[in-house]
Prior knowledge:
By secondary structure, this protein is of the alpha/beta class. The protein has a single domain (53-64, 75-312, 322-378), classed as 3-Layer(aba) Sandwich (Rossmann fold), CATH 3.40.50. 36% of the residues lie in helices and 7% in strands. It contains twelve helices and seven strands. Strands 1-2-3-7-6 form a five-stranded parallel β-sheet, sandwiched between helices. A hairpin with a 2-residue loop joins strand 4 (245-246) and strand 5. Helix 3 (114-122) packs across helix 8 (279-294), helix 5 (147-155) packs across helix 11 (351-372) and helix 6 runs parallel beside helix 7. It is globular, with a radius of gyration of 23 Å.
Amino acid sequence: MSSEExxxxxxxxxDAPFRPGDNPVFDxxxxxxxxxxxxxxxxxxxxxxxxxxxxxxVIDDEGMAYGDWDPNLEYKEILQGLKxxxxxxxxxxxxxxxxxxxxxxxxxxxxxxxxxxxxxxxxLEEQDWIFPTYRQPGAQFVRGRSMVSxxxxxxxxxEDNVKGRQMxxxxxxxxxxxxxxxxxxxxxxxxxxxxxxxxKYKQLNEVTITWIGDGASAEGDYHYGLNFASVYKAPVILNxxxxxxxxxxxxxxxxxxTNFASRGLAYEIPxxxxxxxxxxxxxxxxxxxxxxxxxxxxxxxxxxxTYRTGAHSSSDxxxxxxxxxxxxxxxGGDPIERLKIHLIKNYDWTDEKHLQLENEIDSEVILAxxxxxxxxxxxxxxxxxxxxxFTEVYENVPWHLQEQxxxxxxxxxD
Length: 414
């Protein structure tokens, strides 16, 4: 007898396809780089229906680039992208080692997702606004931020540009228009739309880009952002990074569909699903979206299909909820390895040059750390002065906070 016949209703609760001890099996991708044509900039949203349910690719499984979406970048531009990606991976690795040895309290890697923010930010203009999550720190490399500055923030020493007001890895970079990372997930979607509309109101040639995780797309902020962007034709690029996991929750808990890109079609926004480990595909779609936004045609919605290879954070143990080798079977591969193979097959790049690059960047990261700790370390400081607690927070400090601050200063000991 079924539970329905007994009068009981069974609630369906999705589970991850593979758990620890299982042997992961993923189907090989059926999409090739020449499957999907580039639509006209002024297309209607329904003209991107196939793009939202397929997969935009440029670099195939053998490392060759072709198809309508090939941006035909020069060698030096692609190589610059590779260098930024390698720098982020080595930086992340060194910072995780710092965390494990007690020199850093907390850290979050971008392992397996280095391509996303780097390729997309390279496709933008310097004046464009960036509303990131904690897996887009690579955008700062593109915008010229030094690793010394980034390490000082993560340590929270006296040179922390956030002055100790944020957790480690919650960067902000004013010069690079890189807005402070937020711990509450999803908030940046509606904020990014607001800034984009401000740019439009001021008639400025500025576009805003933002990202949200697959899990956070179940938040109301995701739909608020889409709706406002749709109604007011905001010059914004709205990305959903489907990396399969929201901490320990599989993406099938975030939506009843396995496809995130097509959700934007209901808002009449052009939608694309893109190979998130394909540097050239991400660059090309982002460049298309920026051109559309620039001429006043509004937002673009993108699902970036990738895989979170590492743990959610230094506090997470992914071996408790997924097979430890699951990422090895995922058909998207590794973004750095794929771009490296593309450069070797098509340009003057070799394994030896790549190894030399890794060694040079590793030395660069070590030197950056040594320089950063000259300004203070986690254990001993010096830390940002308490006098900065309200500076750059309020234009005019509210009276009740000023009153408390004045009272505290009466008891301050030098």
